[in-house]
Amino acid sequence: MLCNTYKMTVGLMHSVTLYHWEPNANSGKPMLALMEKGVAFESHYLDLLKFDQHQPDYLAINPQGTIPAMVHGERVLTESTAIMEYVNEEFPGPRLMPEDPRDRWRVRWWMKFLDQWLGPSFSMIGWKVFVGPAVSSRDPGELKAAIERIPLPERRVAWRKAIYGQFTEEELKESQRRVALGIRMLEQELANRPWLASNQYSLADINGFNLAYALPLSQPALSNDELTPNILRWLRAIYARPATKACWALGRTNLVKRVTILEQPGRVT
Amino acid sequence: MRMTLYHGEPNGPSLAVLAALFAKEVQAELVRIDLESGERHTLPCAQEPLVAMSVEGEGAVLVVAGEAMTDSVFIACYLDDVGQGAALRPADPYGRWEAMRWCRQTTERTAPAAAYLGCWAHPPKADAALLERIGSVDLRARWEQIAAGEFSADHLNDSRTKIHQAAERIEARLDGRQWLMDRFSIADIETYAWLAGMVRLVPAAFAAKPRTTAWLARVRTSPAVAQALSLARTGDPAASWSVGPEINRWG
Questions:
Q1: Average of pLDDT values for A43-49?
Q2: Which residues in B lie closer than 8 A to residue A178 (C-beta atoms)?
Q3: Which residues of chain A does B87 touch, with a Cβ-Cβ cutoff of 8 Å?
Q4: Which of A31, A76, A259, B207 shows the smallest number of beta carbons within 10 Å?
Q5: Which of the 8 DSSP states describes residue B109?
């Protein structure tokens, strides 16, 4: 008991700063995990669309220039899913990982599937529809310089494709195939239990919500109350949580305001 | 609890899971399957979504109480939770974050590169009837490309670069330490499992890296990894490859 108290004190005695963009995709994962745990943190908003994440002051914190990053005392943490596991273990508050080891395996399986298979396909469509058009009207020279400042070569490729509209029809078709299959898999899994990976709310749900919160708007023909009742039930249950409401209230763009579709039960078709 | 582990030759994800099983002293029925001929797709659990759609590709499958589990890192976490042997992850949350982050970078960046180069040098072979049983469209496409001998020069070059980067990360990490974390861990097992076969395929990546070279030998001769390698049937398990994780589609 003494050990636990000490650990909690150590965890709380250092300040937490989160460098993030919108409560959406990777940024939203540690934001929502911190809020669910009730951990106070200093929010440092980086405007992805203004390339704040590639400016020297942020690269001094995370040289890879990826968002989010969390600073806890002297510790700098990156990789949003790994950060969530740290947040869950380091701080007191509700447990966001189930007790059963097999349930924990399922949580991690789904998070990897969302992060590395389904997420990039959602993201490709999102970047084509939202991110690319949002920045492509800027001065061409400024954009070129901004791309050249990106540290990771694969991120340079991604930004180039988004800004100059270089996604091929084949790439987009494959992403759409994966989104459709991923929706079917989520619906099937959520028919088995109340939450995605176990019978309790977990990091897998936080991860999944960040990816799928706007599904009824972005994929209305594939995800609606008739076709995917379990997904809609799940999204609404997560959005009803106070932490989720507080987290999405930090959003500044129309991208995350799409979440309000979940305030209209039964009207989504 | 009754467990069955379906595994291939001890290399890549099969090696990682076998080593974790032995390190944690977990009892399981070991069933050898030929991952290089796609035999995993003949298992009764092959069409279960969390098997068919495993991001890892052709890895080991652990069946516990009727549930088929895939992905070597997460199976190793499970075994770490339920087994009796020494812990395979650090005890404190920051150390565990370091271990999970390291494994994520390994499985996301190194593993696809190693599997691509491994399959290029030692192509797995599945017959047409078996390919049709593969539930994942994109995994089947990767099998078909290998069967047709279609390896892109860009992907081969990029994969070699990724192996160089992995060796550089390891060499830097091992400055002043014997293992990638404070003690032998899941990070050593997973990283070794993907890189053991790369020493011959990308020798330049390991040249003039004394710490990495010594670490490879240290992991290979560690009790759990040595026990896993003793199950090899081919005499050269590091040359056994099957289709691995997909190379990132974009960014």
A1: 92
A2: 138
A3: none
A4: B207
A5: I
Please choose, from the candidates B199, B251, B150, the residue with its C-alpha nearest in 3D space to the C-alpha of residue A158. B251
Which ipTM did the prediction report? Answer: 0.98
Query: How many pairs of residues across A and B have Cβ atoms under 8 Å apart?
Result: 97
Taking the domains of chain A in order of start, what are their residue ranges? Answer: 2-90, 101-263
Whether A82 sits inside 8 A of B70 (CB atoms) is: no
Residue A130 in this model has a pLDDT that exceeds 90: no
Nearest to B104 among A77, A82, A113 (CB): A82
| The length of chain A, given as a count of residues | 269
- Interchain pair B249, A171: CB under 8 A: yes
Q: Which CATH superfamily is domain A2-90 in?
A: Glutaredoxin (3.40.30.10)
**Pick from A94, A110, A125, A127: which is nearest to A201 by CA?**
A94
Of the candidates B192, B204, B198, the residue with the CA atom closest to the CA atom of residue B229: B192
User: What's the whole-model pTM score?
Assistant: 0.95
What's the fold here for domain A101-263?
Answer: Glutathione S-transferase Yfyf (Class Pi); Chain A, domain 2 (1.20.1050)
Distance, C-alpha A118 to centroid of its chain = 12
Tokens of A78: 């990156």
Q: Which residues of B touch A155 (CB under 8 A)?
A: 251
State the smallest CA–CA distance between residue B234 and chain A in angstroms. Answer: 31
Domains, chain B, in order of start with CATH, read 1-244 (1.20.1050.10)
Beta sheet of B67-69, edge-to-edge order:
B29-32, B3-7, B61-64, B67-69
The answer to whether B26 and B63 have CB atoms below 8 angstroms apart is: no
> What digits encode the pLDDT tens for the residues B61-113?
999 999 999 999 999 999 999 999 999 999 999 999 999 999 999 999 999 99
From chain A, the residues in CB contact with B64 under 8 A are 102
Distance from CA of A82 to the nearest CA of B (A): 6
